[in-house]
């Protein structure tokens, strides 16, 4: 059995939707998967992470495959375009690739267990659900079960990502967050997260208000001051912008004014991915 798994990048939070909102982006990691004799494992990696990620059972794609219950031999060729540690869901993409590969190898259709297995790796489902389902997702948990609903993104939503060369660790940036926030900030976050769903699916004209955050971005500014500077500069000129995931990438919507200094950022306009993860057989 041989097949290709193609997984989109994702952006999460989208302002105040912390650990709840995610959106799939048209940037992809491809994993060529083949079954192999028991005890055999081979991994090659091209692109992002090449030379840095492990090439054994601790590789994240392999760990996700094993989490599905597949224990057989495995040959993987990973072609990665999603930058690592930039807030574009590279870890979630690898996990989703492994989960989908495991389900395929087992002859099992994707179901809600696929999201459950993927989300358990990270402790939240926003990035994984976006990569699985495409579009924009609202994710939550009920006890130990992870859930998500998918919505189509309005065709007028035009994402731009600004990717710096510096990396950021989700674990590190989470450590900057306070244990408690003021009630007014929590209420603000609830309203803006709800508005973000409306803005992304029906009315992009309110994206500037919808992406305003008090819940996490300011607390994390010491980890990526240039990111916050660019966000503030864009927002002052009326461009909706926020941190993508745990940063340091900026996600903005619309055209970037020439007067905003984006030196040091790789600026890319991306489509919204509507389909989510794809699998196709290979000869």
Describe this structure in words.
- This protein is an alpha+beta fold.
- Helix content is 31%, strand content 29%.
- The protein has nine helices and eleven strands.
- Strands 1, 2, 3, 4, 5, 6 and 11 form a seven-stranded mixed beta sheet that branches. It has a four-stranded antiparallel beta sheet with strand order 8-9-7-10, with helices on one face.
- A hairpin with a 3-residue loop joins strand 1 and strand 2 (17-36).
- The protein is globular.
- It starts with a strand and ends with a strand.
What tags apply to this protein structure?
283 residues, alpha+beta, seven-stranded mixed beta sheet, four-stranded antiparallel beta sheet, 9 helices, 29% strand, globular
Termini separation comes to 9 Å
What structural class results from the helix and strand content?
A: alpha+beta
Instruction: Let me know the average pLDDT.
Output: 95
Q: Helix and strand string, N-terminal first?
A: EEEHEHHHEEEHHHHHEEEE
> What's the helix count?
9
Question: Which oligomerization state do the chains in this entry correspond to?
Answer: single chain
Characterize the main sheet: 7 strands, mixed
- Name the beta content range: 25-35%
Q: Give unreliable regions as ranges.
A: none
Compute the number of strand runs.
11
């Amino acid at each position: 059995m041989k097949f290709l798994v193609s997984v989109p990048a994702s952006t999460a939070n989208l302002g105040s939707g912390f650990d709840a909102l995610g959106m799939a982006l048209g940037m992809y990691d491809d994993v060529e998967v083949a079954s192999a004799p028991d005890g055999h494992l081979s991994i090659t990696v091209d692109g992002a992470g090449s030379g840095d990620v492990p090439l054994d059972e601790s590789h994240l794609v392999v760990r996700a495959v094993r989490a599905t219950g597949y224990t057989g031999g495995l040959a993987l060729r990973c072609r990665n375009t999603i930058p690592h540690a930039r807030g574009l869901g590279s870890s979630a993409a690898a996990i989703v690739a492994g989960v989908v590969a495991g389900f395929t190898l087992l002859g099992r259709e994707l179901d809600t267990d696929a999201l459950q297995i993927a989300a358990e790796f990270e402790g939240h489902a926003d990035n994984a659900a976006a990569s699985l389902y495409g579009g924009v997702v609202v994710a939550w948990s009920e006890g130990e079960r992870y859930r998500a609903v998918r919505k189509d993104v309005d065709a007028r939503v035009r994402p731009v990502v600004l990717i710096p060369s510096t990396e950021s660790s989700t674990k590190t940036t989470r450590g900057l967050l306070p244990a408690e926030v003021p009630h007014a900030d929590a209420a603000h976050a609830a309203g803006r997260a709800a508005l973000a769903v409306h803005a992304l699916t029906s009315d992009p004209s309110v994206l500037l208000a919808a992406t305003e955050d008090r819940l996490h971005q300011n607390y994390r500014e010491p980890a990526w001051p240039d990111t916050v500077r660019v966000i503030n500069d864009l927002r002052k000129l009326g461009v909706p912008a926020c941190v993508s995931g745990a940063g340091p990438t900026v996600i903005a919507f619309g055209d970037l004014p020439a007067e905003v200094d984006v030196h040091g950022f790789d600026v890319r306009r991306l489509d919204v991915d509507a389909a989510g993860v794809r699998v196709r057989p290979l000869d």
